[in-house]
Amino acid sequence: MDDERAEFALILVPIIAILSDVYLDTEGESALARIAPVVKYAIALIFVVALGVLWADDSYFQPLLAVPVMMMVFVALYVLDIIKGGADAKALIALSIVFPFVPAIGGLPLIVPLDPIASVLFPFAFSVLIDAAILVMFLPLGFLARNLASRDIKFPQMLLGYMVDSGTDAPGFIWLMEHVEDGKHRIYTRPRVDEDTSKELLKLREHGRSKVWVTPKIPFIVPIFAGLVLATVAGNLLFLLFGF
To answer: pTM for this structure?
Structure first.
């Protein structure tokens, strides 16, 4: 490794600063505990900007610089509650470190952007997130097909889940879209994560509901894994959809 490439190892400074905040909990209510995350991200940001000024025009260094940038993007998406789970954010952060470059296996990925700058703007980990989000967008079509086949027709529930027998013993990994409150039957299209499914099903049975609408609990880590496979084999679907 020549001197210039050895200097590229400085990219580890912002990466370690971000990882220390993500994986090391700062306990206590002291001023130091409150300011520590700010200091870590300030260090990361300063190094990213400085290293970008020095070597952002180097085609080899660009994917390395994208690693801490993507890490901060994923942290921001988690803080903004766009990425819901901490495990999901950590998985994406890990992917950004493991895959600074797009993995090339034979002739894969199939979709290669026409403009080289697209690969810089969409690092592999970000492509995984995009592909995962696109896959999630197709879930309503799957629910629609299932409900049409079983003739369970009700909008918008038929796009968000499916019906199960209310007599089942609290089927796992589902959220109810129906509840009985103050003696009235109500429909909710957004999950109520604090519900006691067994008790709610009992109330619905007593209210005369033999079948109820539910939406499955699908951890986003599942679409992330599917997005990883898709991004490796096919590439970033945005390149295909928008002709980058």
So the answer is: 0.86
